[in-house]
Amino acid sequence: MARVSDRAPGAAGSGLNDDIGEDKRLALYRSQVVIREAEQRAFDLFLQNLVKGTSHLSLGQEAVAAGFAEAMQPGDLSFCTYRGHSHTLARGVPVEKVLGELMQRDNGLMRGKGGSMHLTSEEHGVMGSYAIIGAHLPIACGSAWRAQYKGHKDVSVCFFGDGTTNIGAFHEALNFAAVWKLPVIFVCENNLYMEYTPIGEVTAVQHPAADRAASYGLERIVIDGNDADAVYRTARTAYDKARAGRGPSLIECMTYRHSGHSRADPAKYRPEGELEKWKLRDPVKIYRERLLQFGVAEKVIAGIETEVRKVVDDATETCKAAPPPSLDILTTDVYADGGWAWRN
Fold first, then answer.
1. Which region holds residue 104: left if phi is over 0, alpha if psi is between -120 and 50, else beta?
2. Where are the chain's structural domains?
3. Whether the Cβ atoms of residue 57 and residue 81 lie closer than 8 Å to each other
4. Do the Cβ atoms of 294 and 25 come closer than 8 Å?
5. Of residues 194, 196, 201, the one with CA closest to residue 170
6. Whole-prediction pTM value?
7. Is the confidence at residue 4, as pLDDT, over 70?
8. What's the CATH number for 21-318?
9. 15 vs 10: CA distance, rounded Å
10. CB 290 within 8 A of CB 68
């Protein structure tokens, strides 16, 4: 943490940080760096044939996960897509647990049985990553309905991509949540592409989530999804609204993935220069510069980066040395009761 004595010479006073606070800003930066370093390491391990199958990285989209997670309270629940590493890490799941799961090792989050697209940690409020497009929106409504019925104050947050907005479950979930005033937040991570198809080519409105909000009596909210401060502030307002019993929010975060849809996608469909333009708005670089502007010393920022890289390096070596899951757990944890035999 930066102390007054650690501030850069001539830096602005702490008054500039009043709305968010320096401690929270440092946490936001660390979260983004953890996601960036862990995701890049996952890519490197894939090239070494240590991560099997496909996976979907959030390189370039770190600010969305960090901003919403840092604004959460204990007990709030996250529902993610197959591109869920970032949200899982942002909720505090150790890097070792995530990389171990991707590498199919026994020390993984789900002992190597779930893999990249099914990260789940009830302990950390991560209620699953869903590979079926739009499937988790009605589930998030169910979770929010439970909280409303029992008088609990937790909020369910459902993350999805722009392509999900053309799925029936999106509209059904929005309508249900609005009618019942459920404590749920729908977050569209609009990275401009469904998979290989630009969302703008197949959607009648410019902003596929926000421009449909009015149909359900909701406010139109479009924000810079590469600015963690903007995400954090917007998320905080939405959480307050949900906890006060004033219903759901639909938030469209404009962002961009630096890599293809998955590891199998070279992303050659993107116009020349588009990636380079968006990299000028790299969320990690933006936030690093902002910390300097707010007077956080270079050595404090570098210290966070060094510490995170060590965490990722140590986690990598631990996962490499970990054994694969034993065969005796193959048929355990298959159903809610833990068994499977009676169904066969």
1. left
2. 21-318
3. no
4. yes
5. 194
6. 0.92
7. no
8. 3.40.50.970
9. 14
10. no
